[in-house]
Amino acid sequence: MNLNDFLIYQKLYEEKSTNKAAKVLGYAQSNVTMRLKQIEKEYGAQLFVRTSKGLTPTIAGEKFYTHTNKILIETENIKKALKNKQKASIVTSENLFDYLIVYQERYALAEYDFTIVKTTEINRLADQAQHDIIFSYTELPTTSPYKVIAKGEMNASLMIAIAAEQPNSLPLFVNKDKTCPFRKKSLDEINTGNPVHEIDSIRNIISLVKASQGIALLPDYLLEQESGLEKAGTEAYTIEYQIHELL
Predict the structure, then answer these.
(1) Which of 11, 55, 129, 214 could pair with 48 as two cysteines, CB 3.0-4.6 Å apart?
(2) Which residues form a coiled coil (predicted)?
């Protein structure tokens, strides 16, 4: 006997008619009649007395109705409990993941599923509305079904390897991602007079800077996490970010 059989029996008891129960459930009357016979056969008891006026539950039928309601209520409760325990999904860039999740520990890994993408992918995923929360550096499109629930700032500085030789001649590294705010701020506000090299991820940029291959605008929190880095000057920068929640 499956869960659907309990639903059928519940409607048969409440409607006192196979025809009415079939209409409520959207089934053929013959199918409902067949399922009732199968239930009675499986439990070895007559659950209804059939008359021209409809169905009259027997004593066994009354008990089975109580049992049916208990099963259906408990099933619904467990469905709700399992649904509430499902992890919420978060879309974020690599840098914001490191900052908000790893460094600040604001969202527990055990409670969320994370999708890490390039910043150029954020708006496309926002339009799909398949994630509960989005971390971004900018406003999402006005057509997206998300609302801003928090805003913040990330402190940043121009950084260099502690052991770097001839720092004034090192190239400036920026992210290849055209929408990366660190790239934009680097190109708009930092002028070293040296070549600018595009690198495909922040982790690669960090590795190259630590290897004394260049300098880059990086988040200040990295000074606590990465050995071998130091600020290349006193200029302070801020990178704004937003947290969006699905409506």
Answers:
(1) 55
(2) none
